Amino acid sequence: MPRTRRLVIGVYSNMRRPTTHRAGQEALLPAPGSGDVPTPEQHTQARDWSRRVLAAGFIGAGALHFIVPGVYEAVMPPYLPLHRELVLVSGLLEILGGLGLVAPSPGVRRAASWGLAVLLVLIFPANIHMAVNEVQVAGVRTGSLGWWFRLPFQPLLILWVLWSARPGR
């Protein structure tokens, strides 16, 4: 019986088509050990979806740098100069990177992913500064545990951005 592949929240699940048992009941049966792998089309769909989600996030976050720059200035390490300017430049780069992720050209998408990865590395010291100094954002005190919890997700976000624009399988 032919198998179908279904994308479930970004995770591939290989299932057989509904089969009819002797009692006339339909059931979806997993194909254990079938060795099925996602098709290139499924990889492309997952990457397209990922790029759209990431683009929306980066464009939204970048816009917030211009709407409420004071929030971002508050988390800037004191050793960095020109807080307002750096906030606005990083916001612009996030917007441009987000737009680049959904550009029709694969080369532009790839360049945007690398640009965003570099930007995420460059803003990581601000995340560390927030954790070490228990920085309050917009008057909300999360405690250092909240900021420390956030730190490991930055490398995962970098990998996600790079994966989303990766050509082919």
What attributes characterize this protein structure?
single chain, about 170 residues, mainly alpha, 2 domains, two-stranded antiparallel ribbon, two-stranded antiparallel sheet, about 10% strand, disordered N terminus
Low-confidence stretches: 1-21, 26-30
User: Biggest β-sheet, characterized?
Assistant: 2 strands, antiparallel
Give the structural class: mainly alpha
Helical percent range? Answer: 55-70%
* Mean of residue pLDDT values: 80
Distance from first to last alpha carbon: 27 Å
How many independent structural domains?
Answer: 2
Discrete helix count: 6
The string of secondary-structure elements, in order, is EEEEHHHHHH
Principal-axes geometry comes out as globular
* Fraction in beta strands: 5-15%
Polypeptide structure, described:
The chain has 169 residues and is mainly alpha-helical. It has 2 domains: 1-35, no CATH class; 40-164, no CATH class. The protein is built from 6 helices and 4 strands, in the order ββββαααααα. Strands 1-2 form a two-stranded antiparallel ribbon. Strands 3-4 form a two-stranded antiparallel ribbon. β1 (3-8) and β2 (11-16) form a beta hairpin. α4 runs antiparallel to α6 (153-164).
